[in-house]
Design goal:
The structure holds 2 protein chains of 2 kinds. Chain A is of the alpha/beta class. Chain A is 37% helix and 22% strand. Chain A has one domain: Rossmann fold (3-Layer(aba) Sandwich), CATH 3.40.50. In chain B, the strands form 2 sheets. A 3-stranded mixed sheet of chain B has the order 2-1-6, with helices on one face. Chain B has a 3-stranded antiparallel sheet with strand order 4-3-5, with no helix packed on it. In chain B, helix 2 links the parallel strand 1 and strand 2. In chain B, helix 1 packs across helix 2. Classes of the chains: A alpha/beta, B alpha+beta.
Chain lengths: 220, 114
């Protein structure tokens, strides 16, 4: 006779354990790390380029980019002055802790202050896989529409800071800020939202302040 | 497209727990999956049939217990399933909400033969 035995184990527990190992490794090197998640085209790479240009003289910045194909994004970050590592997931829709684990070995972590992970452009899968970074950054953008928090709740649940990019397009695109914000509030009460435009530069200063305050906490 | 890694994880957990009980066969797996867990059970089943081959879990039946998302409004106390158009409270439009269920994703139990 078959016997039923309880298991009650999170299916992602192996990933979560490895994420903890990644965190320990990052902490041992004393750097601050962020995982940037967004849909394709929201402006992840533009945000990273601007950040590296603005803070790259003051801080040593490493960047790990996850994409299905090509090293275009890593190349852009490298051109801006970051030490960049490319992970081609070959079809996987997200980065997971295993991929980050091997990418970390390709960087000299002790010679970095800030590590930026650019996840695969996708609002679904990356939310499920913890990487071990200190903070999760979600980049939303005006042209995507105001309904995205309502439609992709998991992604917004896990955000430590929410960037709303391309606000220079607000006059041209219908976007109900209150409706967007209602969805965000339900999922992630009180989360910091930074409205900015990577192309006009408006609002970027607040993002740099957020980053620098975390860097100071971490690096002393 | 992340269900292959997920399915491998399910197999690893099931076999580990079964072997701890000296099982010779796993016949059934009971998976609890919330509506917001971003997993597709048909894809898990598809990969399962391939990767369980050659293990003690070969041919085991996967049972998916799907839990709908349920939210409780902290302003008026109403518990509701979120509407397809918006997440806030349908009764009082408050955004002060607690997520009660919908994010589960675990292997709850397995049935084994020893």
């Amino acid at each position: 006779m078959p016997e039923r035995i309880p298991v009650v184990e999170k299916i992602l527990s192996a990933n979560d354990r490895l994420a903890l190992e990644n965190r320990a490794k990052i902490d041992a090197a004393g750097l601050f790390s962020i995982n940037i998640m967004a849909s394709p085209g929201a402006g992840k790479t533009s945000l990273i380029e601007q950040t590296v240009r603005a803070l790259g003289k003051k801080y040593r910045i490493g960047m790990i980019n996850g994409d299905i194909l090509t090293s275009l994004d890593a190349d852009r970050a490298a051109a801006a002055g970051a030490v960049a590592v490319q992970i081609n997931t070959g079809g996987d829709c997200h980065l997971d802790a295993v991929m980050l684990h091997s990418a970390l070995n390709q960087l000299d972590l002790n010679n970095l202050d800030l590590l930026i992970i650019e996840n695969v452009g996708n609002l679904i899968c990356p939310a499920e896989f913890r990487l071990g970074t200190h903070k999760n950054v979600i980049v939303a953008s005006i042209p995507e529409g105001d309904d995205k928090p309502h439609k992709y709740p998991s992604m917004y649940r896990g955000a430590d800071v929410l960037i709303l990019n391309k606000i220079d397009l607000l006059p041209y695109v219908p976007f109900r800020m209150d409706f967007f914000r209602q969805g965000v509030e339900v999922l992630n009460p009180g989360v910091t939202q930074l409205n900015l435009s990577c192309s006009s530069g408006e609002g970027l200063a607040a993002w740099y302040t957020w980053l620098e305050s975390n860097l100071t906490l971490k690096n002393g | 497209m992340h269900e292959l890694a997920i399915t491998e994880s399910i197999l690893e957990i099931a076999v580990r727990h079964a072997e701890a009980q000296n099982a010779t066969k796993i016949t059934d797996l009971h998976i609890v999956m919330g509506q917001w867990a971003s997993m597709v059970d048909d894809s898990i089943q598809f990969y399962w049939d391939i990767i369980s081959e050659g293990t003690i879990a070969k041919g085991a039946t996967l049972h998916f217990d799907r839990i709908p998302a349920a939210l409780t409004c902290l302003a008026c106390g109403q518990t509701y399933q979120p509407d397809v158009r918006a997440l806030f409270c349908p009764n009082c439009q408050s955004t002060r909400i607690q997520v009660i269920t919908g994010e589960e994703f675990r292997l709850d139990s397995i049935e084994i033969e020893t």
